[in-house]
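Proteins fold reproducibly. Consider a sample protein:
=====
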Amino acid sequence: MTELSTESTRDLVILEKIEQDPDATQASLAAQLGVAVGTINWHLKRLIAKGYVKVRRVERRKLRYIITPEGLALRARLTLDYIQSSFQLYRLVRSRVIHALTEVRRMGYSAIRLNGDGDVADVCRLTCLEQGVEIVDDPSVPLLVIQGLKVLIQDEEDKTA
């Protein structure tokens, strides 16, 4: 499974931000990404050393970052890797939800409760809709609990299946 590292993801975001605003400062990039300026500095130095970004002095203390053609190719590749990784995670979660719903049906239920939020819970909701399983607020039906990428079933006696 292709999975983007945090480093690759951060490189992708930095390249996108520079493309949107070549006059962005390390401080503004750090604030947008919620990381330390030193982290941005480290990434930029790496991107410059590898030839993906060039830096030009515009004023005495002002720099402009320019993405090179190689940097544009890297951004495209990282974007594709990110999309592929996202779809693999989507398929993994969907498969786990279908497995859980099969177990719920085997238990004699056609509805569930759902405990969780975020993207994984959204995939769960869509899969339930697709599979014809209703999401209700009825304590007598099994509870699907979302924990990270895990999908767990709890029946009305709170036993985890």
Q: What stands out?
A: The radius of gyration is 23 Å. The mean pLDDT is 89.
